[in-house]
Amino acid sequence: MNQNFNEKLNQAVRFKKEKDFQSALPIFEELAESNPGTAYFWFNYAHFVSLINRHKDARTFVENALSIDPSHRYSRSLYAGILLRNGEIEPALEIVDELMEKQSEIPLIRKLVKESEKLRLLPKLQSYFEKWLIRFGNDTGFLSIAAEYYHKIGNNIQAIHYYEKVVEQDKQNQFAYERLVDLKTTGKTGDERIKQLNMILKLSDQANNVHLLGLLAREYKKVKDWDNAEQTYRKILALEPNNLFERKQLGFLYSKKGDSVLAADILKECLMADPEDHFVRSSLISCWKKMDAKDDALAFLDQMLNRYPEKKNYFGIRNRVSKW
Known about the structure:
By secondary structure, this protein is mainly α. Helices cover 76% and strands 0% of the residues. It is built from 19 helices and no strands. It has helices spanning 3-17, 21-32, 39-51, 55-68, 73-85, 89-100, 106-118, 126-136, 140-152, 156-169, 174-184, 190-201, 210-222, 226-239, 244-257, 260-273, 278-291, 294-307, 313-322. The protein is flat, with a radius of gyration of 27 Å.
C-alpha cells in the first residue's frame, strides 16, 4: 500500500473513533474501490459499517479480512460478534473459545451469554465457563460474568462463590456486593435481609456503600419501617447530594407515609431536574390534591414552563390543575 492510502486509512479510522461517521464513510468507500489486500483495512471498514447498522456489509467485509489473514484477532472477535447477533451460536462459540486461549474477551463473553440466553442455550456454555475459569479465575471482570452466568442457570451456590471472589479482590465493587447480598438473602424474610445488609455495612470499607444503603432503605420500606428508611435515604444523600434516583425514593417515601408537604418539596426538585418522569409527576400532583395546594401547584408549573417551554404537555397539566 502506498503512503497516500495509509494516510487516508488512518484518517478514516480517526473519524470512526471520533464517531464522525459522515466524514469517515466516503473515505472508506474510496479506499475500498482499490480492493486493498490488507486485513487491517477490511476489519476497520467492517467495524465501521457495523456501527452504522449495515450488518450484512459488516459480515462481508470482515470475511474479506479473514480470507486475507485468518488469524487476525480483531477480525475474529468482530466476526464472532456478528455471528452472535445472527443467532449462530455454534460457530461463534468456537471462535470465542479459540480467542480465550490467549486472553480474556470480556465484551464478547457478555454478548455470548446474552444471545445464548435469548435462544435458551445457556446450559451449553457451562463446560466452557469451567474451562475459562481455570485460566481466568483471578480476573475480576471475568469472575463477575461467570457469577452472573451461574445465577442465570440457577446455580446460586456457584454464583455466590464467584461474587465472593470478586469482592475479595475488589472491595470497592459495589455492584458485586449488591448482587451477593441479593443472592444470599433470596427467600429470606425482610428482617433477615435487613440484618444481613447491616452486618455488611458495619464493615469499615462498606459503611458508605451507596448501593447497599439503597438496598437497605428499600428493605426498610418493604417492612414499613419508615423512620429507618428515611434515615438511610438521608445518609445516602449526605454522601451523594446529586443522586437523583435516591432523592426520588425519599420523596416517594414521604408520600407513602402521608407527609404530603415534605414529599411535595422533594418531588418538585426531582421533577424540575427530570421533567419526563411520569411517576414523580403523578406523585406530586397527588400530594397537591391532598393538600388542596392549587396555588402552589400553578406557581410551580409556571416555573416548569419557563424553564422547559418545549414541554408542551405541561400546558395541558397546568390547564387541568387550574380547574381544581
